[in-house]
Automatic annotation (TrEMBL):
InterPro entries: EmrE-like, SCL35B1-4/HUT1
Alphabetical list of PANTHER family matching this protein: ADENOSINE 3'-PHOSPHO 5'-PHOSPHOSULFATE TRANSPORTER 1, SOLUTE CARRIER FAMILY 35 MEMBER B
MF terms in GO: 3'-phosphoadenosine 5'-phosphosulfate transmembrane transporter activity
Coarse class of the protein's main subcellular location: membrane
Compartments where located: Membrane
Mode of membrane association: Multi-pass membrane protein
Official protein name in the record: Adenosine 3'-phospho 5'-phosphosulfate transporter 1
Domain of life: Eukaryota
Length: 431
């Protein structure tokens, strides 16, 4: 009975030959793999009954036989109310609004506003994320304090505020008539929750700069899957930039600083969690791309996904008894309460800035702003939390971001060229 927990807790140690991380010494129940399965069981307790109900209503042909006060709700959740629309060009967001007789100064002001909003939201979010997951609260001269361990509660905090903001936005502004079956949002919601959870948990085992570079290298597995599964073709510059990114990330990961502490060592657990983040996040974007074939706005997507995210996370937290425990932690540490609330505010505002920036200036400008944000996030993390980066590691970071900027530039050139192609010719598919 005690052997399995001990084996699970020792997996990262056996894989890396390092000492057991302090986060794993408290109890085997704190090991991330155990918590992952417990959380998944909580989600399954909601997903499985919901799946059975959906199958039942479809088998009974409820659209024709259903009656009563619950009919509109069941119809909206299971069947939807509208046929699919034509798929938009970018697959995920509405076409960018072209500026109409707007002065250059006004456009520059809008661009600076978007850039400042994105940088402030996500840089603050990154700094707070690392603070909450890697530092203690309530430390005194005699008491070392305690760490907050439940990543799922932080995910719940982020989603409940995003749900509120999106709901208010949809209520106060005109939106397209919604037609997608509500249950379809649950797939993107589940993968989004798991990707966010992996992202928070990974910070217990790896440094924040490593996590940022791993996100930047997400294009590599996406290209590999596209080549193997969808038989997609890519241009030479896409292979070149992917190779540069892999070289840069390898330089950073293989470089070592003499005073690097255990808390910043890239462990096996951290690598697995980062891989989980990339896999779940890739599924989320692809599923949302499919959902946008229905007539909906990005904010409606944000609302629908977060409805299920709140349902899944609060259900799992209540089943585990972790919701009250986390609320008690908030009551004991007012500083953590402020950090958790600000973390949620930054996450929700950041999503709105994303929609507004892409709508006003397009995806290329947005990508440049967010790439700069990743570079600033690494710099801030090193300055605030004392992460040491060697010369080789710094060169690796520089190579990654040069490759990312080359990718944005090449893609914008390809888009301009594709617009000039004669009818019947189509450009090569790109990631």
């Amino acid at each position: 009975r005690f052997c399995l927990p001990l084996v699970l807790a020792s997996l990262p140690t056996m894989a890396t030959g390092e000492e057991i991380i302090p986060a794993l010494q408290d109890s085997w129940g704190d090991f991330w793999l155990f918590r992952f399965f417990v959380n998944a069981a909580g989600y399954a307790s909601i997903v499985v009954p919901g799946f059975l109900l959906i199958k039942y209503f479809k088998r009974k042909n409820y659209l024709e036989t259903g009656r009563g006060i619950c009919f509109p709700v069941i119809k909206s959740c299971v069947f939807g109310s509208e046929v699919k629309a034509a798929h938009q060009d970018d697959g995920s967001l509405p076409l960018r609004a072209e500026p109409t007789e707007s002065s250059t100064a006004r456009q520059v002001f809008k661009l600076l506003f978007c850039a400042a909003g994105l940088q402030a939201s996500y840089l603050t979010w990154g700094v707070l994320q690392e603070r909450v997951m890697t530092r203690t609260y309530g430390a005194t001269e005699t008491d070392p304090g305690e760490k907050f361990k439940d990543s799922q509660f932080l995910v719940f905090m982020n989603r409940i505020l995003a749900f509120t903001v999106a709901g208010l936005y949809c209520a106060l502004t005109k939106q397209p008539r919604h037609g997608a079956p509500m249950y379809k949002y649950s797939f993107a919601s589940l993968s989004n929750i798991l990707s966010s959870w992996c992202q928070y948990e990974a910070l217990k085992y790896i440094s924040f700069p490593t996590q940022v570079l791993a996100k930047a290298s997400k294009v590599i597995p996406v290209m590999m899957m596209g080549k193997l599964v969808s038989r997609k073709s890519y241009e030479y510059w896409e292979y070149l930039t992917a190779a540069l990114i892999s070289v840069g990330v390898s330089m950073f990961l293989l470089s070592s600083a003499p005073n690097r502490t255990v808390s910043t060592v890239t462990t096996f657990s951290g690598i697995v969690l980062l891989a989980g983040y990339i896999i779940f996040d890739s599924f989320t974007s692809n599923w949302q791309d499919a959902l946008f074939t229905y007539k909906m706005s990005p904010v409606q997507m944000m609302f629908g996904v977060n409805v299920f995210s709140c349902l899944f996370t609060v259900g799992s937290l209540l089943e585990q008894g972790a919701l009250l425990e986390s609320l008690h932690f908030m009551a004991r540490h007012s500083e953590f309460t402020a950090h958790a609330v600000l973390l949620s505010v930054c996450s929700a505002c950041g999503q709105l800035f994303i929609f507004y920036t892409i709508n006003q200036f397009g995806a290329a400008v947005f990508t440049i702003i967010m790439t700069l944000r990743q570079a600033f996030a690494i710099l801030l993390s090193c300055l605030i939390y004392g992460h040491t980066v060697t010369v080789v590691g710094g060169l690796g970071i520089a190579v990654v971001f040069v490759a990312l900027f080359l990718r944005v530039y090449a893609r914008s050139r390809m888009k301009k060229r594709s617009k000039k192609l004669p009818p019947g010719e189509t450009p090569v598919q790109k990631v």
